[in-house]
Amino acid sequence: MVKWTGPSLSPTKIKAFKKCPLSYRLQYIDKIIFPSGIEAFRGTVTHAILEHIFDQPKTDRTKNWALDNIENFYNKCLAEDPKANNIPEIDQTDKLFNSISEKIENYFKLENPARLNPTGREKWVQTKINLEDELGKVSEVRLGGFIDRLEEKPGVGTRIIDYKTGKPPKAERFAEDYYFQMFFYSYVYRDMHNEIPRQVKLLFLGGESGVLIKAPTKENLLDFEQEVRDFWKAEQEAEMKDEFQPNKNPLCDWCAYKHKTLNDDGTVKYEGCPIWRQA
To answer: In what helix (H) or strand (E) does residue 85 lie, and over which residues does it extend?
Structure first.
């Protein structure tokens, strides 16, 4: 396979620009990347367990198997990502394992893996689209990402399943980003297989857990494509003018780019968000 060297887009990348253009620029253009925290590592371990439970015979796909293997997958994920050893809370295994256990418990409230027959897990999907900027320049852009689980049944249709270790949205207006992700993978799958998935399902494993389900339509995917085209024009214009404005929003308190940060040698890595420097 020829390695793709052109521009690429993922749901996370597009969402980052919509949330805060400045944060997007720092992460994806300036490549000022901070180490992942304990939340991300907890998600990695949880996803690994839910991926590999389907390696087991159906009779062994039990909650006990998943809970008994938390430490094994913790060690496996640490070995695959040595930088995770630098996370301050990484050695607080009792707290971490209890948190992962809660998510596993919640998963088994939503599904019984012994009844499922996935045709793909952690499956990479991609397509390409021609996008035009405000000046009329056309770029071939790759849309791609990993699907947590795929279930394809001839004559019945395809389901795309994604695991979320956070809490389900409390109201419909908070579900917009999740719908965008659903349509992203539905669009890519449709381009690859000439078939719109009959269902996209998000399993939320945090808090009281919950499920978000959509049956994508042709109109949904047309709207999604227009949203991608609008994003591309806005992003390319921001690059051309070098104007990536900060956007104050409820997620600012958790933003790694909020305050001044230093490199290991004491030099300034980033001056900090102008909104908060002026506060």
So the answer is: none
Query: Taking 80 as the threshold, does the pLDDT of residue 266 lie above it?
Result: no
Q: What is the DSSP string of 116-158?
A: ---SEEEEEEEEEEEEE-TT--EEEEEEEEEEEEEEEETTTEE
Cα angle 41, 34, 42 (rounded to 5 degrees) comes to: 10
| pLDDT range class, residue 273, cuts 50, 70, 90 | confident
pLDDT in tens, 111-125: 999 999 999 999 999
Q: How far is CA 187 from the centre of its chain?
A: 16
Q: What does the pLDDT read at residue 277?
A: 64
Exposure string for 39-69, b = 16+ CB within 10 A, e = fewer: eebbbbbbbbbbbbbeeeeeeebbbeebbeb
Helices (H), ranges, the chain: 11-19, 21-24, 38-52, 63-68, 70-80, 93-110, 176-193, 218-241, 274-277
Average pLDDT, the chain: 91
pLDDT at 225 over 70: yes
The answer to whether the beta carbons of residues 73 and 47 sit under 8 Å apart is no
Query: pTM of the predicted model, to two decimals?
Result: 0.90
Q: Which helix (H) or strand (E) holds 216?
A: none
Cross-strand pairs, 150: 120, 160
Count the Cβ atoms, other than its own, within 10 Å of residue 87. Answer: 20
CA dihedral (262, 265, 266, 272) in degrees, to 10, reads -20
Helix axes 70-80, 38-52, angle to 10 degrees: 120
3-state secondary structure of 38: helix
Domain borders along the chain are 38-115, 118-241, 248-279
Per-residue pLDDT reduced to its tens digit, 165-184: 999 988 777 788 899 999 99
